[in-house]
Amino acid sequence: MSPESTGQNEHYIRVLRRRFRAWRGHRPFWAGLFTMAGGIPIAYFPYASMKLGNMTLAMSTTAGAGSLIIGVLLITLGLTMWYHSIVRVFAGVAAILLALISIPVANIGGFVIGFVFALLGGALSISWAPGEPVDADGKAPVAEVPDAERPEGELQAAAVPQQQGSGYDLAADADGGRHRAG
């Protein structure tokens, strides 16, 4: 590139990493990854066979189709957590239930590996919450109480920032939130 060029001077790998980090930050990424990682051994082990010299060790069971269905559903739920994060609670509960069902159906939940990953992914999906939007100056948004909801005679107080764990409780008053008439 010449010094007069208006193009980016950053390496394309840095740009891709930054885009991936931004994409990953707006969805339950680790929940989806653990759920998909749990679905793979649950679906794979009933159809796998190992060769020990001339002897073949088959781990197949009569419930091979059930474990394949559970594994494919867990992989689908993991992708759903990534691309439709609005249904993350449903996907998390479904992943936990499928992980529990995989214990009797799919070789003890994919030899416990798939069970633990699917259970962890479901729990992470249920507990994930989208972040608060940030203003252009990098400050958290400020919640203001509309004048119509303010009782008569109360002065307009400064806006209190709504942050998790900030110690402010706007809903509770000294009388438990009830206002007495008269």
Can you lay out the helices and strands and say which pair or pack?
Layout: H1 12-25, H2 29-44, E1 49-52, E2 55-58, H3 64-83, H4 88-105, H5 107-111, H6 113-127, E3 142-143, E4 160-161
Antiparallel strand pairs: 1-2, 3-4
Termini separation comes to 77 Å
Element-by-element helix/strand order = HHEEHHHHEE
Q: Structural class, please? A: mainly alpha
Q: From the alpha-carbon coordinates, what is the Rg to the nearest angstrom?
A: 26 Å
Strand content: 5-15%
The averaged pLDDT comes out at: 78
**How is the biggest beta sheet arranged?**
2 strands, antiparallel
Total beta strand runs: 4
* Overall 3D shape: elongated
Q: Give the strand order, joined by hyphens, for the main sheet.
A: 1-2
Give the uncertain stretches in residue-range form: none
Please give the share of residues in helix.
Answer: 40-55%
**Count of helices?**
6
InterPro entries: DUF6114
Protein name: Membrane protein
Region (Disordered): 145-182
Transmembrane segments: 28-45, 57-79, 86-105
How would you describe this structure to a colleague?
This protein has 182 residues and is mostly helical. The protein has a domain of 116 residues. Helix content is 48%, strand content 7%. The strands form two sheets. It has a two-stranded antiparallel sheet. A two-stranded antiparallel ribbon has the order 3-4. The chain is elongated, with a radius of gyration of 26 Å. The N and C termini lie far apart (77 Å). It holds the Pfam family DUF6114.
